[in-house]
Amino acid sequence: MLELNRVYWEYDKGDWWRPTPYREAFVNIPRYRRYGPSIRHDLFTLAKQFAERYRKYNFYIALSGGIDSEITAETFYQLGIPFEAVTLRLFGGKNDYELLYVNEFCKTRSIKSTIIDLDLKTFKDEVIPKATRYGQFTHSLSQIALTYLFEAMTDKDILIYSGHNPDISKFGVGWCEDSPNMVKYAINTDKNFFTFTSLEPIFMHYLLNYDPNQPGNKNNKFIYDCYPNLKNRTKRTGWEVLDDVVNECEPLLVRPVRPDDPRETVNKKIRYGAKDWPVFLTWK
What angle do CA 214, 163, 237 make, to 5 degrees? Predict the structure, then answer.
């Protein structure tokens, strides 16, 4: 469960890389059910095991200014596990408000942090093409932008992400494909990637507190109850004010092709459309 670049899905014929066209996509690990008394209990247990297993590596936790990445960093900090924070600054400071939380968190704990600037031209000309080529990204510009953090990593570094898994659709509980795509990207670019939020106990705590009527689709009370020292805030990512960037960049994406798609032959790429949905992976 603690392996780097963990693959927990498959497509046609057991492949982890989506073929074109593809017929099916599903999760190929046992269905998630188990979890402990609290997210803090489970995250502490997993973090200690992780740090021991990969003690020869350098840990970099991607901090966005949100509570999900902050509880991972706070867990490492309270356990005395050495790490550095790395943060993406979007398009000349569009997410500077969120970065105030990152700065405060790191400064009060004397944690070394690095801010990496991503400008729009680099995003369009380099990051998006590379993410689609090596990660098969078709949606989620925010996740595509985060792949830029890998550029600063070496083979002795592990980049640790956090998120709000699970995703829920009419097909059930699981993952939109952007989560597996981050793993594909790391594999194909020879980087080391890890996330705690796709592991069974952490995934289950998020599922139990799923609330589609709240930002991030969850009620964060279960987090703040376990980490009362962290500042309560409304979930924001910086992308809330980037509609112009989204409208400009979404046409650069290409969505996956199924053999029964009526609009286009399977040998042609189909451009992103507002009504297109990402591949969703759940248990059979």
Answer: 65
Contacts 24+ apart (CB under 8 A), 246-250: 246/141, 248/120, 248/124, 249/123, 249/124, 249/128, 249/141, 250/141
Tell me the residue type at 243.
D
Residue 19 sits at the vertex; the CA angle it makes with 13 and 24, to the nearest 5 degrees, is 55
pTM here is: 0.91
Tokens of 138: 């078709």
- Could you give all domains of the chain from N- to C-terminal order, each with its CATH number? 36-282 (3.40.50.620)
Which residue is associated with the tokens 């705590």?
Answer: 205
| 8 Å CB contact between 192 and 185 | no
When pLDDT is cut at 50, 70 and 90, the band that residue 89 belongs to is very high
